[in-house]
Amino acid sequence: MIAVSAPPIAAPSFPASAEIDAIIRVALAEDVGRGDITTEATVSPETAARAEILQKGAGVVCGLPVVAAVFSALDRRVRVTPTSAEGSFEAGRRAVAQIDGPAAAILTGERTALNFLQRLSGVATASRRAAQLVAGTRARVIDTRKTTPGLRVLEKYAVRVGGASNHRAGLDDGFLIKENHIRAAGGITPAVYAALHRAAPGQIVEVEVTSLEELEEALEAGATLILLDNFSTEQMRAAVAQARGRARLEASGGISLDNLADVARTGVDYVSLGALTHSAGVLDFSLEVIA
């Protein structure tokens, strides 16, 4: 495993929104269903409790605001007090939050809260590893749309918490002309021209290319960002020399943590990694009632 160093990264602002509230409602409905019959049978509504959330493995904590929102959705009397900073790294076991309030709400929300926390912390940890591997180069690591359905806004937040950056959030906020668009449009040049005609002033028009010949066509057509699809590192260096700053270059395809540093050293501007979200795994947490 690649080591993740300890210096903290200032976490970005949490994107509280109606969209996230809706995600939490769906998650709670999935888990609670018609009611938490175990808690209802064994715990008095009048019982108060204090609990801790414990991080059980090395990684970056991410998702504490979501934890607070989950418990608030169940009972506004539940208070979540972080004891570790969002975006902070720890190599071992630690308490990351204290929870006080009605015991029933704490027990009912436990799994939903931990599911969000472990997933987002896994994405943030993977993003931290990737961002560290490109340190000292001009390249920035960016994510893709290969996210868990329904969780994109949260997973992209976790990418930022880890120190990497976001690509477009959806099909409506950026032009990315890929191989199938090119075929349907009749070629790179007509596809780029059509996108440039529709683009707002200053809006990026990105196009995917698979060879140096296609790169030149995209440059001449006026693309502002060019995705180098499955280029070798030697081809990436040649592409950087050929582009001569006429467009920014993004490397994508066949890239992992094992070769990420080599890719970054070719001089590309961005390296996109779907693995930040689709293969991030999770960071283990537990919730323990302590009083």
Topology:
Blueprint lengths: L17 H15 L4 H6 L5 E8 L3 E2 L3 H11 L4 E4 L6 E2 L3 E9 H31 L6 E3 L9 H11 L12 E3 L1 H7 L2 H11 L6 E5 L2 H10 L3 E5 L3 H11 L4 E5 L7 H5 L5 E3 L2 H4 L6 E5 L2
Parallel strand pairs: 6-11, 7-8, 8-9, 9-10, 10-11
Antiparallel strand pairs: 1-5, 1-12, 2-4, 3-5
Helix pairs in contact: 1-3, 1-4, 3-4, 4-5, 7-8, 8-9
- The SSE order reads HHEEHEEEHEHEHHEHEHEHEHE
Q: Percentage of helical residues?
A: 40-55%
Question: Count of DSSP helices?
Answer: 11
- Adjacency order of strands in the biggest sheet: 6-11-10-9-8-7
Major sheet characteristics: 6 strands, parallel
TL;DR?
With 291 residues, the chain is α/β, with parallel strands linked by helices.
Protein architecture, described:
This protein is α/β, with parallel strands linked by helices and 291 residues long. It has 2 domains: 18-132 and 281-289, Quinolinate phosphoribosyl transferase, N-terminal domain (Aldehyde Oxidoreductase, domain 3); 165-272, TIM Barrel. It contains 11 helices and 12 strands. The strands form 3 sheets. A 6-stranded parallel beta sheet has the order 6-11-10-9-8-7. The chain has a 4-stranded antiparallel beta sheet with strand order 3-5-1-12, covered by helices on one side. The protein has a two-stranded antiparallel ribbon with strand order 2-4. The longest helix has 31 residues, at 103-133. The radius of gyration is 22 Å and the shape is elongated. The protein starts with 17 loop residues before the first helix and ends with a strand.
